[in-house]
Design goal:
alpha+beta; TIM Barrel; Immunoglobulin-like; 2 domains; 18-stranded mixed sheet; 7 helices; about 20% helix; globular
Length: about 350
Amino acid sequence: MEEIIVNLHMHTRYSDGSGSHQDIANAALKAGLDAVIVTDHNILVKGFEGYYKNDRRKILVLVGQEIHDQDRDPQKNHLLVFGAQHELATFADDPQLLIRAVKDSGGLSFIAHPNDPSAPVFGETDISWADWSVKDFTGVELWNGFSEFKSVIPTKLHGIFYAFFPELIARGPLSDTLRKWDDLLEENRAVAIGGSDAHALQQHLGPLHRVIFPYEFHFRAINTHIFLPNQLTGDTATDKRMIYDALAAGRCFIGYDLPAPTRGFRFTAQGREADAVMGDEIQAHGGVTLQAHLPSMAEIRLLKNGQVLRSVKNKQALTHITIEPGVYRVEAYRNYLGRRRGWIFSNPIYVR
């Protein structure tokens, strides 16, 4: 399988970002990404999908949406939509109806920033997901870079500090979001993705001016690594379909690529009659060998049904044999800039 690195959930001047699609493509090329998915608020911006090139590389720019009911007060229930064939913001006032419309149009739906705290000192309200009665969504945005920023700025001084030192922010998905994802996995499949929520916001505070945070910074940090059956072909329609099919199947993991590259992580299972990768189901009968392999040493945790089953430190691999059904996933942590930080969060292998 071919691993590609994708940054998703970002905004341009068509909603509340400061850059253009070309700006995003340029930043993504500098960061070494393979693809980005732009998701402006409540508008499907057409005419920008395709490959963008510089002298050495090319990047695939895809366009989705982040849809929410603009009349709702307070704001809640933001949904990331990928691959839908037409504009769907007219369904925003009913989250379940919107999810069904996305599915009917052949698209994927991910609950955006399920837990998104307020930041009163900067006028940012809590925009968490509220309607958990919904069904049939593809998955959740497990780690959102901008939501995490809001969680660490109780004062304006904190905001100024992190604006100049953004590499100190990321620690991992919010704990409430991790717990909610594990709860969802008890009943249904739910694919986890990591989103940057990049805006490249232009901020002014007296004489101080800062871009919070440049697209390129985001593109070097929280990414979604996706496994494709074949290499990207260079044809937009073909590659778009491959990427969305792999996302729908859960063949991906979240990597925080700033401390160290996460490319090369693998989580697999071998059973009596079949093998499995992230997103797959495998039969427990006869025993299953679960294997996690990291590109460099870190703390590795194997979880079953949301509970830590095995944990090792300063290792590059973990192996576990089981005959017990469950939802198994992997987390990896490493020290960076004086703090233990989340590094890798896999999607599950379902042992049935």
